[in-house]
Specification:
464 residues; alpha+beta; five-stranded antiparallel β-sheet
């Protein structure tokens, strides 16, 4: 084929005869010269790939289909109708709604394509290519469709297709003769210009409708997940007078960004604040959902009880009454700025790793506060203790994801309590943010790229 074209260019071969021969093929054929310039488009290719015009430049496989090297840098791309429709369906699949609609417009076998869909509040969405070459959406009332004779009948599926000839200015962004075929319920595919085939458009619209409906479901599901996830993610740390706060939150399942660990700080009008860091058994969505229930229960119970140990008793009873099946470990506390400087902390714990205190001289103390796991047993004992922080001193709450982090090159070796205390001791004199950054860096240097459990810490520092 390439040799034939070169002969036509150099020796005056009858190119019209050659074009008639290629037009007889059952596949769409586009021939590109060594510079990627389109030199031949048969009649079926003009329908399937309207962007492929003689003299235009196409990058790589922009014409779609299969490639055939013709020698000397010449290339033919060819595709049957079924191949074209299958490839279009593949490229439209598994996309979010906006991306799917853009792809439907870009791949349609027409020079100018508009996708019309029912939108919110009884309006219509018009997706089409803009003069700049991208795909944008306009929204109008349904009455606008009535200005194109026959178009409403397509939207309502009264007719299988309609030619549109009397078009004024409108969201379709084109003039001349067009054709509309049904797409989804209340939607249509509208094509203008060039050469189009109604049967082909209907088959393309059927593939496009399936992709749009699937993408719409996918997008709605993602919005639901995002809304639910927003309520499960930690809230931004608040400002508490006399206190510096910092945190690290690294769920095991990074794709969903949520896990069974949680923390919260609840300021009060008197300048004090309640705080909590907890860990629900397991990880992933089930643990995250349960951590959300624990957080909501604590938030409600803090209205009637601020003392840490009685608060844990109430939380245990509330979770058991709600049919809790997962146990939770946590530390709860209150912080109160001291007039002379520093903080007074009251802490209670339920089955959780002991908090650590970094003193001004670099010493690390373990806070002896104990209690049973929460949410499973009817009778659980909790005690509480009071800790004083001088200005600049730091309290660290953490989940066992830190101490049980497994070394990247020896999965049997855990990070452990000793390394955590040593890493915290290295933070003497650092701000709360610097403490959290240092601990995160040390633990992830230990982990490398290996998988890990939910990993969370909360830094409470008395302002210097």
């Amino acid at each position: 084929m390439a040799q034939g074209y070169r002969q036509g260019a150099d020796t005056g071969l009858d190119l019209d005869a050659w074009r008639r021969m290629v037009d007889g093929f059952h596949e769409a054929v586009v021939v590109l010269d060594p510079e990627g310039v389109v030199r031949l488009v048969n009649s079926l290719a003009a329908v399937l790939f309207p962007q492929a015009r003689p003299g235009s430049t196409l990058p790589g496989d922009a014409a779609g289909g299969r490639r055939q090297d013709l020698g000397g840098g010449w290339v033919a791309w060819y595709s049957g109708v079924d191949d074209y429709l299958d490839e279009a369906a593949r490229r439209m699949a598994s996309l979010e709604r906006a991306d799917a609609l853009r792809t439907v417009v870009e791949l349609a076998p027409a020079e100018h394509t508009v996708v019309v869909l029912p939108g919110a509040r009884g309006r219509l969405e018009w997706w089409r290519r803009t003069p700049a070459g991208d795909v944008a959406v306009a929204r109008t009332t349904r009455q606008v469709a009535g200005t194109a004779p026959g178009f409403t009948a397509v939207l309502e599926r009264v007719v299988e297709h309609a030619e549109l000839t009397e078009l004024g200015d409108g969201p379709w962004g084109a003039s001349g003769v067009g054709v509309a075929v049904p797409l989804t319920d209340g939607g249509a595919l509208v094509c203008f210009g060039g050469t189009w085939n109604v049967d082909l458009l209907k088959r393309y619209a059927a593939r496009a409708a399936a992709a749009v409906e699937s993408s719409t479901r996918l997008t709605e599901q993602q919005r639901t997940v995002d809304a639910l996830r927003a309520n499960l993610l930690p809230t931004p740390l608040p400002h508490v007078p006399g206190v510096r706060l910092a945190s690290v939150y690294e769920p095991a399942h990074r794709r969903v960004l949520i896990g069974g660990d949680f923390y919260d700080v609840h300021p009060r009008e008197d300048g004090s604040a309640a705080f909590v860091l907890g860990d629900v058994a397991g990880n992933g969505l089930e643990a995250a959902a349960h951590s959300g229930r624990v957080r909501q229960s604590l938030h409600a119970l803090l209205v009637v009880e601020q003392r840490p140990a009685p608060l844990l008793h109430l939380l245990n009873a509330a979770l058991r009454a709600a049919g809790s099946r997962l146990f939770t470990t946590l530390v709860v506390g209150t912080m109160l700025p001291v007039q002379a400087g520093g903080l007074r902390l009251t802490l209670a714990a339920g089955g959780h790793p002991a908090p650590l205190v970094l003193r001004a001289d670099g010493r690390v103390d373990e806070v002896a506060v104990h209690g049973g796991i929460v949410g499973v047993l009817p009778e659980v004992r909790f005690n509480q203790t009071t800790v004083a922080l001088a200005p600049g001193e730091t309290l660290l709450l953490y989940s066992d994801g830190l101490t049980e982090a497994r070394k990247h090159d020896d999965r049997q070796e855990l990070f452990g309590d000793v390394r955590l205390k040593a890493a915290l001791a290295d933070c003497a004199g650092l701000s709360a943010d610097a403490v959290s950054d240092h601990l995160r860096r040390v633990v992830f240097d230990w982990l490398g790229s290996a998988e890990h459990d939910d990993l969370t810490l909360l830094v409470v520092q008395a302002a210097p």
